[in-house]
Amino acid sequence: MIEASQLNAGELAALLHFHADAGVEFLLQDEGVDRFAEFAASVALRAPAQSAPQQERAQRPSATAAAKPATRPVSATAVAIPGEEAVEMARRAAEAAASLAELKQAIDSFEGCNLKASARNSVLPTEAGELPILIFGATPSAEDDREGVPFSGAHGELLAKMFGAIGIDVGRTTLAHTVPWRPPGGRPPTPAEAEICRPFAMRLIALAKPRFIVMLGNFTTRFFTGSTEAIHALRGQWFEIGTPPTDAVAMLHPQDLMTAPLSKRLAWMDLLEFEQRMKKANA
């Protein structure tokens, strides 16, 4: 196995681009997670209390049990809904929302996406900020999933520093994720899952009426633009999103900078361009 220390700068850059194209958003978390302990704890919470005689009977398999395994009841939220039907459900729910508050309620009560069944919380958009800027991430991080707030962990801290460097308080912007539920293990959403969530993202744009949209990272930029290019090829480019069209710029996600600190130079260039674009719009 080749160590990273054996690669030159060009080879390292090619490797990072390869990971970006593959959809890898992070390599290591800040703190280790004992998945075995988490699983054991969840089993202990779900397992019903059994008396000693019941446990003894459970340990003696009967002929009937061997012939026909007991079926496990399936919850309503686990029922798979055909993709087209789920997308239509999401579209109707999103269009019925006449305000951001109603949209957040529609997202939180929506049962048509399987991701909700495994997520701890629906990570809803923040309240509309004073600044006409809507910042989209891809999917909730583990911290977001725990808190129910977008950009609540290390990603949020770095995002605040990024925009704070050009005098923008992200607390005065609107923050959201294209997909409001964290996929299991932080995997990328499937195309079907993304399409189910699309009506909510587009309705957010229509209701928030931002002057600028910031698309962070690979998934978010591809989600809105339909491009198959990697973020390093799209960053700094401007697009028009929604109806009426809103100016949207692709930028590196905070995780991109945490994984490859050398990319901070590129992010700074994009932030300066964003600053100039805002000044021209306000002139």
Plain-language structure description:
This protein has one domain: Uracil-DNA Glycosylase, subunit E (3-Layer(aba) Sandwich). Helices cover 49% and strands 8% of the residues. The protein contains 14 helices and five strands. Helix 5 runs antiparallel to helix 6. The longest helix has 19 residues. The protein starts with 8 loop residues before the first helix and ends with a helix.
Short recap of the structure:
With 283 residues, the chain is an alpha/beta fold. The chain has helices at 9-21, 35-46, 52-59, 63-67, 83-96, 100-109, 115-118, 142-147, 154-164, 191-208, 217-225, 231-234, 254-259, 264-282; strands at 133-137, 174-177, 212-216, 238-241, 246-251. The chain has one domain (81-282): Uracil-DNA glycosylase-like domain (Uracil-DNA Glycosylase, subunit E), CATH 3.40.470.10.
Listing every helix as H and every strand as E from the N terminus to the C terminus, the arrangement reads HHHHHHHEHHEHEHHEEHH
Average predicted confidence as pLDDT: 83
C-alpha termini separation: 56 Å
What characteristic shape results from the CA principal axes?
globular
- What is the CATH class name? Alpha Beta
Considering the protein shown, what is the CATH homologous superfamily? Uracil-DNA glycosylase-like domain
**Which structural class fits the helix and strand makeup?**
alpha/beta
CATH T-level fold name? Uracil-DNA Glycosylase, subunit E
Low-confidence stretches: 49-53, 60-79
Give a short account of the largest sheet: 5 strands, mixed
Strand order of the largest sheet: 2-1-3-5-4
